[in-house]
Amino acid sequence: MSTPGEPAVTSYEQAPTRSVTVGDVRYAYRELGPKGGVPVVFFVHLAATLDNWDPRIVDPIAEKRHVINFDQRGVGASTGEVPGTIEEAADHAYELIAALGFEEIDIFSFSMGGMIAQDLILEHPGLVRRLVLTGTGPRGGKDIEKVAGVTYRDILRATLTRSDPKEFLFFNRDAAGKSAAKAFIKRLQERTVDRDRPATIKALRTQLKAIQKYGRSAPSDLSALTMPTLIANGDHDRMVPTALSEDLHRRIKGSQLIIYPNSGHGGIFQFHEAFAPVAADFLGSPA
């Protein structure tokens, strides 16, 4: 980890890839923004690596906050085996956070990352100060186990059209959605050096099975999530149905909910100009 005396990297495109070793596992991560205080740790989505974060979301938060993004075990530049359950993934996230020396964090999560974040908080009360849950749902949430079917169908559709699967999975297939999808994929390609290794098909399948188990499990008691929480999604999320964001909002006392119109799973990316400042303001200062 870098030291407080180093100049802060202000752009995710320029953030160096670092690593920390825990036992026989090496975790890859990137950090940017001013050091000191409580960091914001980003929890990424299904089959995602360090290169899958939208810089238009990361950079505005990193203007005032120390941001850390990481590869989960067995994905991208992190070694080890991909965990077979969301609970294991949460244990690994805690392992990384502890190795970096943090006793308190804020979390920004998207999709599967939000599922991992919920399990982490339930297992380690007091660790998380503020929580952002986007495009995600609760353990045992209705139709979460159907994510695998939607994912495989859209990967096939993308292959047939020589497109990125995220164009189908994250965005509506109307004119606005197609335009937002192309712009999002272009932003993900802005970093041209020190890029991460793509997730493997094996990693994708293992993570999809973990999500299915999560969806078929008994619900968690989310009354334990007492920290300020911001929830956001598009109004037509096919991967993790929008109704589950509304369910989270009902079950997490005092939470805030934003639903963006005419958008899907990647609503926060389609509406990044509106959402990024809201998220940055919600996360506030590191003190």
Automatic annotation (TrEMBL):
Annotated GO molecular function terms are: catalytic activity
Q: Provide the AB hydrolase-1 domain boundaries.
A: 40-269
Record InterPro entries: AB_hydrolase (IPR050471), AB_hydrolase_1 (IPR000073), AB_hydrolase_fold (IPR029058)
Stretches that traverse the bilayer? none
Family matches, as Pfam families: Abhydrolase_1
Name of the molecule in the record: Pimeloyl-ACP methyl ester carboxylesterase
State the species of origin: Nocardioides albus
